[in-house]
Amino acid sequence: MAKVKVVIENKQKTVKIPTGLRMLLRRCCAATLEYENFGEAAEVDITIVDDEMIRQLNREYRHIDRATDVLSFPLGENGVYDKNPETGAYMLGDVVVSIEHAQAQAELYEHSFRREMGFLVVHSMLHLLGYDHEEGGLKAVRMREHEEAIMQQIGLPRDAAYAADE
Fold it and tell me: How far apart are CA 101 and CA 85, in angstroms?
C-alpha cells in the first residue's frame, strides 16, 4: 500500500473532536485508496466545519443555499492528478465535513458518530477518485457498493437502515 498523507484541520468550535477521530479518518482515506487499487502516494486535506461554514461553501461552489453533510473538491480529472513537487505524491483534493450534520445523521440513521464520519469521508474520497452518484442509476449503485465494502473492511459495517422510520 502506498503512503497517504491526510491533513486534518478543525475549523469549528461547536463540537469537541472525539479522541481517535483523526486516526479513523486517516484509516478511511487509506482504506479507500487500497480498495480502489490507487497504488501511488497521495495527499488529501480534510476540513471539519460547522453547518454555517458548509452552508457558505455549498452556496458559493454549488449554488445551493443550505447546509449539507460533506463536500468534495477533487483536484484531478479522469484519473489524472497533479503531483506535489516536494513529495511526489498525487494531490487528490479536499474533503469538507460538517460535524454538526454528521452528528444529526448518526442519530437519524441510528448508528454511531464514528460510522457516520467514516462513511462521509469514504464517500467523499470516492468522489475525489471520480465516482459520481448525482444522476442515480448504476453509477450510484456502484458507488454505494464500494462505500459499504470499504466500511466493512475498516470494521464499521452498516448496522441500520439509511432511512428514518416513518
Answer: 35
| Residue 81: exposure state from Cβ atoms within 10 A (0-12, 13-18, ≥19) | buried
Query: Per mean pLDDT, which range of 5-9, 135-139, 151-155 is the poorest?
Result: 135-139
What is the C-alpha to C-alpha distance for residues 5 and 26, in angstroms, rounded to an integer? 8
* Mean pLDDT to the nearest integer, 115-134: 94
When the candidates are 1.10.287.110, 3.40.390.30, 3.40.50.300, 1.20.200.10, the CATH number that belongs to 4-153 is 3.40.390.30
C-alpha cell recorded at residue 77: 480529472
Vertex 150, ends 109 and 3: CA angle to 5°?
130
* DSSP β-ladder status, 42-49 and 70-74: unpaired
- In angstroms, what CA-CA distances link 150 with 15, 36, 57, 59, 71? 26, 9, 27, 30, 19
Contacts of 127 (CB under 8 A, 6+ apart): 72, 74
pTM exceeds 0.85 for this model: yes
